[in-house]
Amino acid sequence: MSRYLVTGGAGYVGSVVAAHLLEAGHRVTVLDDLVTGAAEAVPEGAEFVRGGIAQAAGLLDSGYDGVLHFAASSQVGESVRDPEKYWRNNVAGSLELITAMRRAGVRTLVFSSTAAVYGEPEEIPIAETARTAPTSPYGATKLAVDHLISGEAAAHGLAAVSLRYFNVAGAHERYGERHEPESHLIPLVLQVALGRRPHVSVFGDDYPTRDGTCVRDYIHVADLAEAHLLALAAARPGSHLICNLGNGAGFTVREVIESARRVTGHPIPVLVQARRPGDPAVLVASADRAREDLGWRPRRTDLDSIVADAWAFARQAAA
User: In what order do the strands lie in the sheet with 47-50?
Assistant: First the structure.
């Protein structure tokens, strides 16, 4: 049994990973300031410390086997309006955490990264060797942290894995998406089914795809969590492994809406609007490295199952 610190563990992905760590028999401390996280998302059995990264140093001194780092600002649009917040929270915060880890002798890190580091893709599927050219401060700050981690591994022997997510969706038991404001397609569609929105907006229906709408790679949050536990086992001193996480196949916006109609039984009206600047037609991951180096195999790849899990959580949260 190992002991892990999970920063941002009251958020969507962090809470599901914390729950999986506990289910695997590990001891878990969740550190979260609850600015975007929810206290009710902290898994039962985890120690909870309310606070920011500044509190990590004191915690790490008490002895941990590793850190899983999810604490970050993560809204692309907000990052364009307020880039300073993103450089401060995501980059300066990560530097503070990594410095505290080195001083405390904690030498294993799994970092929550993002496909936003790639920007507009030059080829599909996107591999880890693809050009990194983020189009938002959010993506730029996550890429900066990846460079920081690589330097720390080379200079000081950190054992690190960065996991670059594509579109995370679904729910795990009582843990699901609680973003405010919400910007992800599946929970937005489900808000229409719940009567909280009159329609779902589709931004562009003239893309060069099978139905004219954008294609995205959706990965179930429970599959994502399993990759984090495998990453802990795969981390090696002095090495920084970077892996994409996705299904390797994408679904169009219209296919997601049709799936939600089947799952919820709601008609889900659609309002087609103009394309949003910077929205690529297709974003699909190559997850070959995660399969080879982590032994990871996503098991929950059926779109209706992903939507059904999200729907069960959405109804529970609205009750």
Answer: 47-50, 27-32, 3-7, 66-69, 108-114, 159-165, 240-245
Task: Write out pLDDT tens, residues 251-281.
Answer: 999 999 999 999 999 999 999 999 988 788 9
Residue 190: φ, ψ to 5°: -70, -30
Instruction: Round to whole Å and give the CA distance between 227 and 234.
Output: 10
Extract the residue ranges of the chain whose pLDDT is less than 50. none
The gap between the terminal CA atoms of the chain, to the nearest Å, is 37
Q: What is the Rg, in whole angstroms, of the alpha carbon atoms belonging to the chain?
A: 19
Nearest Cα neighbor of 8 from 193, 123, 129, 178 is 178
Residue 175 annotated to the active site: no
CA–CA distance, 83 with 68 (Å, rounded to integer): 24
Which among 71, 70, 11 is positioned nearest to 42, based on CA atoms? 11
DSSP structural state of residue 211: S
pTM above threshold 0.90: yes
Tokens (6 digits) for 268: 């889900």
Using CB atoms within 10 A of its CB, is residue 9 exposed (0-12), middle (13-18) or buried (19+)? buried
298: cis peptide before it, omega within 30°? no
Catalytic residue among 4, 64, 138, 165: 138
Q: What are the strands, taking DSSP E only, across the chain?
A: 3-7, 27-32, 47-50, 66-69, 108-114, 159-165, 167-169, 200-203, 215-216, 218-220, 240-245, 251-252, 270-273, 282-283
